[in-house]
Specification:
This protein has about 425 residues and is α/β, with parallel strands linked by helices. It folds into three domains: about 160 residues, Beta Polymerase, domain 2, CATH 3.30.460; about 140 residues, Rossmann fold (3-Layer(aba) Sandwich), CATH 3.40.50; about 80 residues, no CATH class. The chain is about 55% helix and about 15% strand. The protein is built from 16 helices and ten strands. The strands form two sheets. A six-stranded parallel sheet has the order 7-6-5-8-9-10. A four-stranded antiparallel sheet has the order 2-3-1-4, sandwiched between helices. Helix 12 links the parallel strand 8 and strand 9. Helix 2 runs antiparallel to helix 3 and helix 5 runs antiparallel to helix 13. The protein is elongated. The two termini are about 30 Å apart.
């Protein structure tokens, strides 16, 4: 049995190609239905996100399964195989296991350490179990992947440092105010990053928000998203008296917030800190404002610099995460190797059970009237003897798992114990 992973991601395929397979939410269910109908695929899982589309299968016909998965993707995306096959990667066995562990741990993500991918992998697995395409191998593999992801999160700091503009701004605000609960926010402009920063701030428990925009109707619209108060741009000077954090992102070519404006408000603020997050290009906040006491101004270049430092930190943590992935992949590989031994062990135990039952039947008739307790004692004794006789060959076979000589030892065991009773060797 082989484990095969075939897919494309943000590094191997352009977004327009990934969109063909990822935009329809029903594609995952369709993919699993197609896998279920293929004899060459014993187990299957399908991951479909904006950054990656992957199939993970267990098969005893590797070449046929690989061709079938590519054909399946062509059907789902309604495109010829030759148009996307050069963009696919294929991983087999240990490489496939390592890959899925890296994906679940977010080492293989566009942004290293981002947590969303683990949730997406879990959703894909839940759908596979719902569609009954996951079995012994993929069940074990996915649960180990979740275990690896948990180890990476708890044993490294790969998710700790902020790597988005908006989130980096929030982390800075925390350093200045320690806690953001109860703080008041002024949002100037309706830029996407400013809105995202506002969402993060609200999630941190800020008590209230005011939204200002050049067009008042737009201020009302954005204020509705955060249960905030809309104001006009002309009123922002008054707002500086009460707010603690100002997030600004307008399209103005001139400074929206001036030195004199802020200096005037400081006299009435009684030394309370005022924090500006300027995400606009060109800048909204006059730079010399940063020189005022208890005023902190960060523009987009400051935030990008922090992100670069944080990304470097995450890359260092990714080295530790890789070690965990390789360690766990080795453990899974050992488990997978033991699967080849299982049918012979099961056959050996089944044969022992049938012999025990046959011999007990003869013995009980010869021994006369035995009580239920006496019969159970004899049964326990015979099973114990059989288990001890079988223990050494079973342990020996397990030790040979993964070795090239395993098939030879399995064949000898089956012949010694006559486990294949239809092979004509019964009289040997």
């Amino acid at each position: 049995m082989k484990i095969i992973n075939i897919g494309m991601n943000h590094e191997t395929a352009p977004v327009e190609m990934r969109e063909c397979l990822a935009t329809d939410p029903e594609n995952t269910v369709r993919a699993l239905a197609l896998m279920r109908d293929l004899e060459c695929i014993k187990e299957g899982l399908f991951v479909s996100t904006c950054n990656r589309v992957e199939a993970l299968v267990a098969t005893d016909a590797a070449k046929e399964a690989e061709k079938s998965v590519i054909s399946l993707m062509a059907k789902l995306g309604n495109m010829p195989e030759e148009s996307f096959s050069p963009n696919l990667y294929t991983n087999v066995d240990r490489d496939a296991v390592t890959h899925i562990f890296r994906v679940a741990s977010s080492i293989d993500s566009m942004i290293v350490g981002e947590p969303q991918i683990l949730g997406q992998i879990k959703e894909a697995y839940v759908e596979a179990t719902r569609q009954k395409t996951s079995g012994v191998i993929l069940n074990r593999l996915m649960h180990r992947a979740f275990h690896v992801a948990k180890r990476v999160r708890t044993e490294t700091e790969i998710c700790e440092a902020a790597v988005s503009i908006s989130y980096a701004a929030i982390e800075l605000a925390k350093k200045i105010f320690h806690v953001l609960e109860g703080k008041k926010v002024l949002l100037i402009g309706a830029g996407e990053m400013a809105e995202l920063a506002a969402k993060h701030l609200m999630a941190q428990g800020v008590s209230s928000m005011v939204v200002a925009n050049r067009t008042f109707e737009r201020a009302v619209e954005v204020a509705g998203l955060f249960k905030a108060k809309p104001v006009s741009l002309d009123e922002i000077g008054d707002q500086f008296l009460n707010v603690d954090i100002v997030v600004t992102s307008t399209a103005s070519k001139e400074y929206v917030i001036t030195y004199d404006q802020v200096k005037h408000s400081l006299r009435k603020r009684r030394n309370r800190p005022l924090f500006f997050i300027d995400i606009a290009v060109p800048r909204d906040v006059e730079p010399k404002i940063n020189g005022l006491e208890n005023v902190y101004v960060y523009d987009i270049d400051d935030l990008k610099g922090i992100i670069e430092i944080n990304m470097a930190q995450r890359q260092q943590e990714a080295v530790k995460a890789e070690r965990i992935v390789q360690e766990e992949a080795g453990k899974f590989e050992k488990w997978l190797d033991t699967l080849a031994v299982v049918p012979t062990i099961v056959s050996l135990r089944d044969k022992a059970d049938s012999i025990i039952e046959a011999e007990l039947k003869k013995s009980f008739s010869a021994l006369g009237d035995l009580t239920t307790v006496q019969k159970e004692t004899v049964r326990t004794l015979t099973r114990s003897i059989a288990e001890k006789v079988m223990n050494d060959p079973i342990v020996y076979l397990k030790k040979k798992a993964g070795r090239e000589s395993l098939n030879t030892y399995l064949d000898i065991t089956r012949k010694l114990f006559n486990l294949d009773q239809n092979n004509g060797d019964q009289g040997v």
